[in-house]
Each structure stands twice: as structure tokens, then as C-alpha cells.
Amino acid sequence: MLCAGLLGAQIAAIFLPQTVFWPFAAFFVCLSLAAGVACRPARGGAIVLLAGAVVGLALLARTQNELEKLNQRYAGRLVQLSACVEQIDAYGDGRVSALLRVEQAEGEAVEFRCQCNDLPACSVGDLIRAEFWLEVPARADRLDYYADGLAFSAEYESGFVVAGQDDSFRTRAYRWQQALSGAVRRFLDEDTGGVLAAMVVGDRGHLSSELNASYRAAGLSHVLVVSGMHATILCGGLFAGRASATRPRKLWRSRLRSVASAGMAILLVGITGFTPSVLRAGISIWIGALGVWLFAPADALTSLAIAGLWITLPNSYAVCDVGFELSFAAVLGTLAGAEVVRRSRAARMKRQALRKNRPQPSTLRQWRGRIAGVVWESACISVCASAATFPVLVLRGMSTSLYALVSSVAVLWMVQPILLLGIGAAITGLLPFLRPLQMVFSFGAGLLVWLLNGWARWVETWPGAQIYFETGYAAFLCLVLIGLCLLAYHWRVRLRLALPVILLVASVGILTGNALERDIIKVTLVGSSTAPSVVLTQNGQAVVLYRGGTSGQTAVENRLARDGVEQIALVVDLRLSPETPCTLEAEQSLTVADMADYNTEKYRCGGIGVEVFRTHAGCGVRLMAGGRSLVAVSGDFELARPVHGDVLLASASAPDAFTWDEVLTLREDCSWMTEAGEAWLDQTLSLRPGGGWRLS
Questions:
Q1: Cα–Cα–Cα angle for 627, 631, 632, rounded to 5 degrees
Q2: Which spans are transmembrane here (predicted)?
């Protein structure tokens, strides 16, 4: 209850506007107090829940206060930083995108992290010195930055120097990860080796976007991310048996197993880069190992709660990390599924005990019963885990697969042998004289991964593989389904009656939601706050106004995947002097740099009209969508007289050639915006073809 109150208060305070949160908090407090007064057994739980909420708000206030102090001291300034390179996301033309752990700022010892998307080539573990311009993260990326413990978005200015090498555990773990990843992939092709490296050591750098999309469509994305499931398979079974104090030999054997499991968990957390999902699982394993030494009874919920509290203790924004939320929800669902299996098994054994004169079943029937039991257990756990993660997926604007349950039952049995064979290939690959044994492990793991890849690609071709939801409607649907489940439990409705009703309501709700979303045009700014790209989507097709950059293209691809776009109808490259070509695949492409001066190009893509006008020093774009005109500029674009547009898609370029009524922007401090005394914070626009729109 304490964990629920703490995490729930933090999530509500972060995601809800202040004008909504405080009335909601007051209503929640009154409701809890009323429940405690009316029901004496619930009084203790209500007090603990409120205490957790108070502690959660206090921790969040502390985190926000620390961020505010850093912002007041360094935001909007050119600062000399000494930092360690913790992670590198992308390479290109001697430049990298890096995550930095800052150790000194202007010669003073500090401790914060920042993201720099354009840094001279360097490696993980390098100690660097340079001048950076530090900015508060753009509003669209702020929660993701803070959830990862990043305080600033840094722009490199000058003076880059590699001053040495870091020798911390994080750096060593990264080197181990790269060495193990290379060993895993040595004898395998690109797709098979990339999936195996992602599953075993968490190295997703060799995973193709095409295969990643196939796994997402098949509902198996969680298999590619080292999480609590992987940690449980590798570590949880090592000390599953427990010994009593009356048998010292078995007790010490169990204690030694727990120490080995805790050590394996530490190694797994380090190799995978301290991601929240693995860190939460590792903490749970350490708590379980401690319980073996202290004779404490196993309690998965307590271990899960303590792990969640421990992760959010230094940074309250960790609750905003999608991986943490999905991992936490999946474990809750798995525990619920295991409890359903336990109760059904106990009920079956009770029925069998009542049938005293029942004849002994044949061997064939016994095997059929065992297979049915395994399928039932897998189905229960998969259903409960999928149901628990469903609200997180839809409320965070992500997609879910229609065939996630089928995929889980069909292929999850392969995860354990893949992990064990993959670890064998990784370890034996570090010793040259074990090369023949490594080949055996590699080919065994590769065969299973090949089958897994084949399943994912096959399911991707099934109709309606991925489902997407509008966030507000999805929240309402989730509340209805949760309410029906609670009513069925309270009224003790039989499962064979309750389950079809719940599935029917869910199906009707999903079909209704998809019908309501049909033909809606969504306009979103993504990428850099200074040069954001524009993505317009409608019925699985997209129009992209691209402004360049490795991180910008990644942001566009992530947005398209999030919106379920199957095809890009048009890409307009707005760069006037592109250093690298745009590699987004589309039916039609237009590069502004190739257009003649004072020339116009027009396109029609579904319900979206596109008009691009090139001048000598810039270009302007006018989009017609849903009866509204949207305008954008690149470079120094001027006209004889301003042209009116309903919505300006803002960037750092001054839009003097246009007038507008509303603005979409990722940045509120552009020079032209400040001079005009205007500051809009909207970044997404939804348009209905028949009229009506919504900014968010």
C-alpha cells in the first residue's frame, strides 16, 4: 500500500496539470478518510496509502527542487564541462550522439547528466573536456530526459579534448557487453546475431528496424529487451529451493545459491547498462537472496514494491520511464496469472481427491493432461501480463498487437533455451581454445532465433496485427474494463460467463475507437527543438517535412512506428544545403535544394495537399488538411506581402512571410517569438476532415 500510494502520487503529480491534480488529490484524501471511518478493517490500509502519497510528493518536490537549482545555475549558458561518455547512440561523419555524466562545471565539482546529439567522435568511457551550451530539454522530450536522469540538452561549441579513460564499473560493463556481443554474433548472420545479442546482453545496436517492427507487430517486443523475465530465467531459479534451519547443510547450500544469483543479477544489470527494467528485477533478486539468509518468507509483491521504491528514491521522474512502467505492470500481471494457475490447480486436485474410485488414467491421457496444464499455465500468465501492460501501452500512446497472446503461448517457451545457449556462446567465445564449443552453442541458439524471427515475420502479415488508440478514449475504455473485472470478482461471476462479456466489451470498444479515429489527420513536431521535422499521418499513410540530423530521422521513424504508419506517401527535405541524403523510404520525394529558385511544387496525398515554394535563400511550405492551412518556413524565406495560415509549424527560422492564428512549437524561446511577445507550447494537432480540431 505504501508503494502504491508513493508511485501513484508521483505519477499523478507529474502527468496531471496542477489545476487538475490538487482537486483530484483533495477528493482522493476525502475518499480514503471516509473509507477508513466507514470500514474499520480498511483504516490501516487507508492510512498507509495516504502516508505513501505524502512521501511520494515530498520526494518529487525534492527532485524538482534539485532540477530547478541546476536550471538556475547553468541553463541558457555556455559552460566548460568535464564529463565521462556513458553511452553513444549514433555515428555519422565523425560525429556522435552521446550521453554524458558531468563531473565538473567551470572547475567546480558537480553531478548531473546531459545529452549531446552532435559531438566529435569519441568512445564510451572517454573523459572529455569541452564548452557546451546547456538548455532545458524541449517540452516534448522533458519527461523522457528526466526519467533517464538527464538534466540538460547540451550543444557542443568548442574546445573538445579527450583527457583520459574512465575506469568505473559502468565503463567496464560496457566493454564486457561489446565483447560478449561480438562473441554471440561471430558465427551468425546479421538478423539472427542481432536478435541474439539484444536478448542475451542487451546490445540492440545490430538489430534492424525491419525486424524490430516485425517483433512489435507480433507482440514480442518485450523479448528483445532484457527485462525482469530474462533476469528471472537466469537468476530466479538458482535459489528457488529453500532449506530450513534444522538442516544446516541444505541451508548453506541454499545460501550459496542465493549469493551466486545475486552476483549474476549484478553482472546482468551492469552488462545491460543499468536500464530501469533490469535494475528493478535485479533489486528484487537481491531482496530474495537476502531473505534466504534471514529466513524470511518469500514475498514477490514486497520485493517488487521495495525495488520500485529503491529505483525512484534518487529520481522521482523514474516512474515516467516506459520501460519501468511496462516491467512493473508485467510483473504484477505475471504474479496474478501465477495465482490463477495455483488456484485452478488446487481446485482440480480437490476434485480429484473427492473421486476416490476413479480408475488410473492411461499414459496417453497423462501426457495430454500435462501438455494441457503447460498450455493453460502459459495462457493464464500471458493473458494477465498482457492485460496489466495494456493500460500502460495505450495511455503512453503506444501500440499493442492483436496477436500478442497467441505469440506468447506459441514461442515464449524458446526464451529460456535461447538465453542459456546464448550465454554459453558468449562465455566460450572469450576463450579461443573453446571455439568448437562456441560454434555448437551459437548454432543451437541461432536455430531457435531463426524460428523466432520466422514467427514474427509471419504474424506481421496477418490482418490487423497492430492496434493503435487515442489516449483519452483508451483511458476511458481501460476504466470500463477494470470496472467490469472488479464487479465480476465482487459478484463472484463464473469465469466462463465473465470472460466472454469482458472480451465482447473490449472488442466493441476497440472497433468503436478505430471508427472514431478514421480519417483524422494528426500533425506532430518531432526531433530537435531548433529544427523540428513535421509528421502528418492519416489512415496509415504519412507526409513528412524533414529537417535533417541523425536524431531527427530517428525521431521521425519512432513517430511513424508509434502511429502505425505503413507507408510514407511524401517526404519533403527542407534542408537548403544537405550534407547527407535523406534515407526515409517514400512513394514520392522532394529535395528543396534541387529545386530552381522561385519555383513551386504541388502534391496531393489523400486528404493532405502540399505546396512548396523555393526562393533564393529559403523555402516556404503550405499544407491544406482538414479545411485548415498549415505553414512552415526554412532558411530566410521572404514574400512581397505576408500570406495568412491558420497554424504555423514553428522552427528557429523567422516566419515573416506568414501570419497565423495558432502555433505548434517545441521551443518557446526563439528570437522571433520573443520579439513578438508570443509563447505557445502546443506540439500536436488533430484535424477532422469535416471540421474541428484539437491542440495538445
A1: 150
A2: 44-61, 217-239, 259-279, 286-311, 323-341, 374-395, 401-427, 439-459, 471-490, 497-516
